[in-house]
Design goal:
The termini are close together. By secondary structure, this protein is mainly α. The protein has one domain (about 1-20, about 65-320). The chain has 16 helices and no strands. The radius of gyration is 21 Å and the shape is globular.
Length: about 325
């Protein structure tokens, strides 16, 4: 899932360096090559110029609010989780044709930014995210996290990402409302260090991050202990990884005696009717479940904690036997 979000940011921010092209309106996206698309582009623009009077105008009454459009885009991404970026962009860009873009509340502006982000239009998403980065609420958090992704994969300013990760911790407390927190920021930096052979740095980045987090909440940064276990091995610090894994698992189990929480399947989530005004700020974690009137953040945390305890149980068992760590 983190890889999917990373792919979003990488392609989205790379579009900041090129002119936006006319969207493809195919309902059955294909893996057509870049050469094919470039060859077709002049024809598209000629048609648009020649027939501009034929392009239907959308009245204000027909415009849809960004929260509605975001729901449809997220639903498409979740329903076709294996789509390539080209396929997702081709299929979902047309959804944005009727979205309202002016006179929006902060909530709707962030929903609009996420709609652009999830359809790989970094040129349009970035200024909206940057506008709301200084907020102290969930809108500020998701804006900051999204800009960090684009900075890492698009601008490739790794020093800025690292500095802003520390600033993020200072600005936003670690709470159960934001279990993604600095996971992608630190995960990206740790992966970069590990792939360049600097495993000691990868380990230091991970430990610096998790040491700031409450042990009894299912923050995803703790998953880096297992995801980057090879770096702990290479740095000769496997004992620390096992110690932190146990501490986190035990704290979560102590905070929640019932670790059998359930939630609906992805198919169940996709069938839920959208509730007007609901913002899907973390759809790859919460899916579309917030549209269900029974959904609560506390319930989501209970489920996440259940999943984390089960995962860490498997990891600890493997580590104690000297076996490879099973990945989810």
């Amino acid at each position: 899932m983190a890889a999917l979000i990373a792919a979003n940011a990488s392609l989205a921010d790379s579009r900041l360096l090129v002119a936006r092209r006319a969207p493809t309106h195919s309902l059955n996206p294909s893996n057509e090559s870049a050469m094919t698309r470039k060859t077709n582009a002049p024809i598209i623009y000629v048609v648009l110029l020649a027939g501009v009077c034929l392009v239907p105008q959308v009245s204000s009454a027909q415009q849809r609010m960004p929260n509605e459009v975001l729901h449809d885009i997220v639903r498409g991404r979740l329903e076709h989780i294996r789509w390539t970026p080209v396929q997702a962009e081709s299929a979902l860009k047309p959804v944005l044709r009727t979205v309202r873009v002016t006179d929006l509340s902060p909530e709707e502006e962030v929903a609009l930014a996420l709609s652009y982000f999830f359809t790989f239009d970094g040129l349009s998403a970035k200024p909206l995210f940057e506008k709301h980065m200084n907020r102290d609420d969930a809108l500020g958090r998701v804006s900051w996290q999204s800009v960090q992704q684009m900075t890492f994969f698009g601008a490739k300013d790794y020093a800025l990402v690292e500095r802003r990760a520390r600033e993020y911790r200072q600005k936003y407390p670690a709470t159960g409302d934001d279990t993604e927190y600095t996971y992608n920021m630190v995960g990206n930096l740790a992966r970069l260090a590990a792939t360049s052979g600097d495993h000691a740095r990868a380990v230091s980045l991970i430990l610096e991050d998790i040491q700031t987090l409450p042990l009894d909440l299912p923050f995803r940064s703790f998953e880096l202990l297992g995801q980057r276990f090879a770096s702990f091995q290479a740095a000769g610090r496997t004992a620390e990884a096992l110690t932190w894994t146990r501490r986190h698992r035990d704290a979560m189990r102590g905070a929640q005696s019932d670790t059998s929480a359930q939630r609906g399947t992805l198919t169940d989530s996709l069938a839920i009717r959208h509730r007007p005004g609901v913002l899907h700020l973390t759809p790859f974690a919460d899916r579309l479940l917030p549209d269900d009137v029974r959904w609560t953040r506390n319930g989501a945390v209970r489920w996440q904690r259940t999943q984390a305890v089960q995962l860490f149980d498997r990891w600890i068992a493997a580590l104690e036997k000297g076996e490879p760590l099973p990945q989810p």
